[in-house]
Amino acid sequence: VVLDPIATFNQAIDILIQLKKEDNPEFPAQGYNEKLVVGSNVNYLNFPTLLRQLVETFKTDDTISSMRVLDFSREGDAIFIQYEVEGRLGDIQKLNTSIV
Fold it and tell me: How do the residues of the chain divide into helix, strand and coil, expressed in percent and rounded to 5?
C-alpha cells in the first residue's frame, strides 16, 4: 500500500508519539521513558518530564516544525494526550492518542 503525503505524515507522527526509549536500536535515547508511565502510581506521574521527552522526540523529525501538547488526561490506567503537530509545509494535525 502506498500512502499519500498526509497519511505518511500521520504515520510518522503516530510512530513518534508511541516511541519508547530503546525501541529504536539506532537511537536508543529517543522516545519517552516507559517507567514514567507503566507500573507507576498515576498520582506521581511526572507530566513535565514526559512532555519534555515527547517534544525532544518530535524535534528529531525534520518534517515537523512544531509539536504542542494541548491536554493530558487519564481514564483508568490509560493516559491520553491531545496534541497538535505542524508540518514544514504548514499543515496542522490535531490528534488524540493513548500512550499506555
Answer: 35, 30, 35
Share the mean pLDDT of the chain: 84
Q: Under a CB-based contact definition with an 8 Å cutoff, are residues 28 and 21 in contact?
A: yes
Give pTM, 2 decimals. 0.78
Give me the percent of the chain exceeding a pLDDT of 70. 89
In the structure grid, which three cell numbers stand for residue 67, read together? 509539536
CB within 8 Å of 96: residues ≥ 6 apart: 80, 81, 82, 83
Return the biggest CA–CA distance within the chain: 43
Q: What are phi and psi of 19, to 5 degrees?
A: -70, 125
Neighbours of 53 (CB within 10 A): 20
Helix axes 47-59 and 5-18, enclosed angle (nearest 10):
140
Tell me how far apart the alpha carbons of residues 24 and 26 are, in angstroms, rounded to a whole number. 5
For the chain, the first-to-last Cα distance in angstroms comes to 28
